[in-house]
Amino acid sequence: MSKNNNAGNIGFEEKLWSAADKLRNNVDPGEYKHVVLGLLFLKYISDAFEEQKEFIIKDGGDPEDNDEYLAKNVFWVSKKARWEKIKSQAKQPTIGQIIDDSMVLIEKDNKTLKGVLPKDYARPSLDKTRLGELVDMVSTIKVGDKESRSKDLLGRVYEYFLSKFASAEGKGGGEFYTPKSIVKTLVEMIEPYKGRVFDPCCGSGGMFVQSEKFVESHQGRIGDISIYGQESNPTTWRLCKMNLAIRGIDCNIGQHHADSFHKDLHSDLKADYILANPPFNISDWGGERLRDDKRWKYGIPPAGNANYAWIQNFIYHLSPNGIAGFVLANCSMSSNTSNEGEIRKNMIEADLVDCIVAMPEQLFYSTGIPVCLWFVSRNKSNGKFRKRTGEILFIDARKKGTLIDRVHRELSDEEVKQIADTYHAWRGEKDCGKYEDIKGFCKSAKLDEVKEHECILTPGQYVGFEDVEEDSEPFDEKMEKITGELAEMFAESHTLEKEIRNNLGMIGYEF
Fold this sequence. Notes:
By secondary structure, the protein is an alpha/beta fold. It contains 17 helices and eleven strands. The protein has a nine-stranded mixed sheet with strand order 3-2-1-4-5-7-6-8-11. Strands 9-10 form a two-stranded antiparallel ribbon. It starts with 11 loop residues before the first helix and ends in a 5-residue tail after the last helix.
């Protein structure tokens, strides 16, 4: 691969984003992400097709036999839809229609992509000059050949774009993107090595991507995990299909978008792992129509807030030894309104709550409020770990993370590891050391203690305050030093005041 085609170059994503961002003037951010990501997807499958085509020719096969491609899990791209044609027409005013026609052909030839790809590039509101410039920029990289896929270059660009779109859209961005450090913390804690992984509100599929990365980084086999998902937003569902397709991740997220509460596409699924970031505090989830639902084993969730409906939905879909890790707003740990306190009490008494992690503020693009991570286990004494029945681990990570810009914070890999290692040590897993309570950070609390706190699960109520190093300097000496410094500051302020008065007097403003 030539240097000009190397998407790994530092700053490449930023350059591509700058080209895409030029569309902002005449396309809403919620729409132009589909414009850009659709082009990236089209370039990806075209590159992969061309690579497989060269291999078929060298092997003496028929390069126009689509079965030769499907057998290798490569999407078939007909001549009229290939990137070279799109690239050659980038400066034409008809470029939008050419792209739309390509998308239609690709969906027609690949049944798994039916209804997934964006097909509105020809609309008058989309600046065709800017679109052509974006095509030229995307043309400078190879994102679908073997070398690029091995480095996950398109995945990297795709993830970068998702985060940038989430930031640009503000609150709307949270519908499809969960910040990487949150996803990574969840995945590192529940360790989905082998079994069924489920996300009933999967957004753009970030939980699945991180799960596969986790398995790969720990020398596991990708084929050992089966992925299931569901997404209610139709545009986000299509985004997820594209995100997983470009990474070659096999996943059952249904043939269409669907509401997990009212049309459960995996009603019989019992998952070994659940990873999820459900929408926070949703009031219009239709709970009044589900009062007698079989999933509400621990109490009927309020019709005005879906938080405890999500929690019980997760529990319902767990296998006998399953574990769920999910994100919720902090109010979920302490709310007592509309039966939520009673539901939480029932879950605690059933010994389902394994761990609660309080996270720092400003992790999300969609909201600045702090969130918490819940970990729910169907069987704390399944023989794989040290028995932690009758206990809950509380971790207070509110002071973690570093601001990456004025409004967004991220956890470092070391901080994620500290949180995950604390959890694994508590569970008695090998090579994690011995667990110990650390003031201000973590505490293993018996259920009786939790009940004394009225079943409130806020970690700060349990971990206490970290020890502060004792100041050994005598009080009199400290005060003498402080007052001396203060006297110097006062003297300096008087000098500055005199200089200011003199300067004002010189221009006729004495006072």
